[in-house]
Design brief:
The complex is a heterodimer of chains A (566) and B (321).
Chain A: E1 2-9, H1 13-23, E2 30-34, E3 50-51, H2 62-72, H3 79-98, E4 113-114, E5 124-125, H4 131-145, E6 149-152, E7 154-161, E8 166-173, E9 179-189, H5 211-218, E10 223-224, E11 229-236, H6 246-249, E12 253-255, H7 263-266, H8 276-288, E13 293-294, E14 300-305, H9 311-317, H10 319-329, E15 338-347, E16 350-352, E17 364-366, E18 371-372, H11 385-405, H12 415-428, H13 436-450, H14 457-473, H15 488-512, H16 530-533, E19 535-541, E20 547-553
Parallel strand pairs in A: 1-2, 1-9, 2-6, 9-17, 16-18
Antiparallel strand pairs in A: 3-5, 4-5, 7-8, 8-9, 10-16, 10-19, 11-15, 12-14, 13-14, 14-15, 19-20
Helix pairs in contact in A: 1-4, 1-11, 2-3, 3-11, 5-15, 13-14, 13-15, 14-15
Chain B: E1 3-12, E2 22-31, H1 36-46, E3 66-69, E4 72-75, H2 81-88, E5 92-96, E6 103-105, E7 108-109, H3 112-120, H4 144-151, H5 161-165, H6 167-171, H7 178-188, H8 200-205, H9 216-220, H10 227-240, H11 247-261, H12 270-292, H13 307-320
Parallel strand pairs in B: 1-5
Antiparallel strand pairs in B: 1-2, 3-4, 3-5, 6-7
Helix pairs in contact in B: 3-7, 7-10, 11-12
Classes of the chains: A alpha+beta (566), B alpha+beta (321).
Chain lengths: 566, 321
Amino acid sequence: MLQFDILIVGAGGAGLYAALETSKRKGLSVAVLSKVYPTRSHTGAAQGGINAALGNVAPDSPEKHAYDTVKGSDFLADQDAVELMCEMAPKIIREMEHMGLPFSRLKDGRIAQRPFGGASFPRTCYAADKTGHVMLQTLYEQCLKNGVKFLNEWFLLSVVHNGDRVSGVVAMDLRTGGVHGIRAKAVILATGGHARVYWNRTSNALGNTGDGTAAVLRAGLPLKDMEFVQFHPTGLRRTGILVTEGARGEGGYLINNKGERFMKKYAPEKMELAPRDMVSRAIETEIMEGRGFRDDEGNEFVYLDLRHLGRKKILERLPQIRELAIDFEGVDPIEEPIPVRPTAHYSMGGIDADKLGRTPIKGLYAAGECACISVHGANRLGGNSLLDIVVFGKLSGEDAINYVSEIGFAPFDESEVKKEEERIDSLFSSDGKEKLVDLRSELSDVMSYGAGIFREEKRMREALEKVREIKERAKHVKVYDGERTFNTNLQQTLEFLNLVDIAETIVLPALERKESRGAHYRTDYPKRDDENFLKHSVVERGEDGELRLSWKPVVITKYQPEERKY
Amino acid sequence: MEKREVLFRIKRFNPKKDEKPYFQEYKLTVPKGMTVLEALQQIKDTQDPTLAFRAFCRSAICGSCAVKVNGFPKLACKTQIFNELDKFGTDTLTLEPLDNMEIIRDLIVDWDKPFKRMEEMKPWLVPDPEVVPKTLDEESRVYPNELKKFDSFTDCILCTSCFSSCTATQIDENYGGPFQLARVYRFAVDPRDALKAERSKIGYAFDMWNCVRCNKCADVCPKHISPVDGIMKLRGLSIDVGLKDNPGARHVMAFYKSLLESGMLNEVLLPLRTKGIKGVLENLPVGIKMILRGKAHSPVMKPIGEHETLIKVMKAAMEVE
């Protein structure tokens, strides 16, 4: 059996930062397991930037960054974790800069910063509109330099623990199809988000299917604040592909069919740079009330207008956005406005972890989008996710080093490997009465209907029932490809089953949270209710397979809840 | 909305089962706006679940889905089917795996070779203590014009399209490869790097002079990078650090000398200056033919008109570089 002191699952920003941290400690055996070649990870698709109070453009401080983050979170974030993250931000930015990250620069050679939604100052460091891409490349280069071991194109199947300590994971080598147990003293999950639950309209990669989150749920461990899913205001009309908030940070306008900058009605001060939850609701409201546009295919949208920025600025600061608009919408933003609509984007909720990434199981960590620390609470600010992943990737790596140096391997129950083999075998021999494609699409539709941007009791109840029905029907999905080498039919099926598990954990707490907070907006309870719901939801799967919901207090240090105005 | 009936010829191969690759045909009704990746997924969903290909971000940034479309490497996710059909004047699209790598299955190739090669070439910053601060209280200063020198090369998404179409890679096992050499150049001109122009020695060790400047790497790059440009500049750096005693460098120097002398390329002296007597002997049969047909000029050439101006231009160009 493969065996490592520390196994990191996922090779995006969080996984690679954890790997870098652990690679500094000599004598430890560490491996990074990823279902894609590391530089394919979805961190690379982050465009706009990463927040840190460097104060290079305007005076700023970590305290102000923390306040903006807490306010943006609609006061659901744990403030001790937010303070830690914002305090570490300038140093970790410089650390990556010292590794060679090619940030865009000011004339005097310092790192440039741009305005972003919900921030009081230009605080977002960037590399044109490819910040995540160059970050991922830089971290990967440094991992190569430090000789980090990678298991590329391996797929996580389950997390193994004994109720107290983690023993390792079961994973499949996609190239051979072989199912293997991997022993580890510590496992750091950095498996990314799960917005692919909204399959038909999301900015996420095809593989952002919450594999780690679902494995943790199946292992009987808690997920937190799962009802909070961020819809990014500006996804491309047809595909939902992301158009960075940086486009509005650089001065882009949102325009309705009356030619108005409609954000003035919703956030008179911040306008287009209000937090994402507000801007997304504003766009949907405009469309619902007949002030949007509609194309021949029936797609509804508003316009993101960049024309007034001028050719030079667009080419210099937003070259990738221009190219995406041309390739996917046939629109050159220099000449024409870009048709956009909100798109499922980011999972605020995830694996319940503390500010060092620790879960209730010793040696099991979660970092990055798969984790809920929580620093984003009910709504994440743009530019804070790239920060979150590197800070908590680093911290969980550090803590894991300390943990494994004092402890041996926990026993690994080999029947866990067998269990996963049997689960896979059953997919080959299922009756095939249901089709993967149809169920995946149905799941997406019902989640958008019941747990989308606007929510209400009746629709959520219908959605919960429908999700449970899909879960039953999913037992009839069959894998038709009988080969083991790179069986993407099998992989897509396993990913879909993860999405089904996760969907239920989103709807259940959404139903019970009878208030509106951040991205969770209920038309039947349009106000925030701090008295009853200033708390985290926690979902676990019991032995009987049923979900159990409980609540957990929010950590408040110095920022008392107040009304959120922009 | 406009729709077309399209025939997809897709190369299939499972080394475990098949003796050799073969083409399988699928018909699909394609609406305007559909990409090659969407078509592949639709074929997989509705006609053949066994079809194997890679895909991830579907927005041209992860580099997973490069395949050959009618012979040319493309990112499947951003390639509009109608555009390809119109360009080739056809209703058939041929999809194949990339070249210069082993096929694992169908359109999935083995990336180990190109990526291991990149690793061997030290694709990471070695911080220069003169430029990179020792503590995390400060950032290094990199001025916008310095960033400009290497910025475009940091766009590389490792899709291996250039590697697939590289002529030198086909014939030279030791050749570094286009995206790999371009990355060496990226670090060589990063002011924060300690190795700086010395990195060109890595390029030299990996046969950068074997690049034949066919320009295919630049033509196929979905991110509009020109690896060949980086390779040419890396060659220049290698001459700067004194790697002059090799045919590649001598060849370039011969061009340079020729221009300084007369403003014209002295083709008669070129073999001698590049490869010495060996070069002369190698080129002798061709040389004799050229003389007999009146195609050869005298080894002594008269300077062109305004030769002085040319030299000024050359000097100015070198200062800019």
